[in-house]
Amino acid sequence: MSGSLTDVPGLRVGHAQRTDDGWCTGTTVVLPPPGTVGAVDVRGGGPATRETDALHAASLVPTVDAVVLTGGSAFGLAAADGVMAWCEETGRGFPTPGGIVPIVPAAALYDLARGGARRDAQGTPTHPDAAMGRAAAQDAAARDAGHEIPRGRVGAGTGARVMGATRPGGLGTASVGLPAREGAADGDGAVVGALVAVNAHGTPVTVDPADLCEPASTTGVLGDAPSTPGAPAPGTNTTLAVIATDLALTVAQAEAICRAAHAGMARALDPVHSLVDGDLVFGLATGDRPLPTDPMAAATVLLQAQQAAATALTHAIEDGVSRHHG
Fold first, then answer.
1. Deepest of 7, 83, 174, 286, by most Cβ within 10 A of its Cβ?
2. Looking at residue 323, what is its pLDDT?
3. What single DSSP character describes residue 282?
4. Is 61 part of any domain?
5. pTM (two decimals)
């Protein structure tokens, strides 16, 4: 399995992070093309989110302008302020009588003090802020179409850990192509991509232990490991994912893809969706490939996309926790 989220045409991904002076955190921004439909499915007992209600099928605006994955727990949601400001300045947003309003859903994972301190030597809190969010958005905008996504301990994966915070996690990505049938409708041959920041309480179950990162040091950029491996600490985990496709989907259909993708998370991590995880999947549908007009053919494509979403997320998680990062 290979590929990445940027195999979906038009998507760009940018990162910003810090690992010095007590810092070990970062932010990742996904910039979709205009008109991209957004959705979300939230699981687990400890989510830290922003604007997820705006992604429901009954909401006014079906599209999104950016998606933010960030460290810093709930504090890190401030990164979305910088992304919103950047979007407004570049003309991305929903038009209102008072000016455009960017739709920027965000989710945060817990990595507080994993660089060793809650504040650096200057007294600045060591979690993502609006400036880091803006930097990640600018990094995404500067990328070429179809670019390779830096992975591992970058962006939102910088301070991530797995296995009860005893080993480093990270950011991973993968993609799956839908089968194209001879003479079939336009929906066939689409692509489904996954991007994930793995900070799970659970153990990766689809990766050989020999391929996992080395255990977290008791000193250095990952700070102190817990004294009891696997011991839960409330609110200290979360796996954040983005699933994207070039299919033309409604919000409800995109949400169904998100729900199916959680099966891929469950295949890769044990346990998953626990009380100390805030696991969620964002969904993006760029609309380049219309579904077939025949209802049964359309249903077939949607089923294939659901299966591809779960498979892509499983392999993106494998990628995020392996030591072989670009």
1. 83
2. 58
3. E
4. yes
5. 0.91
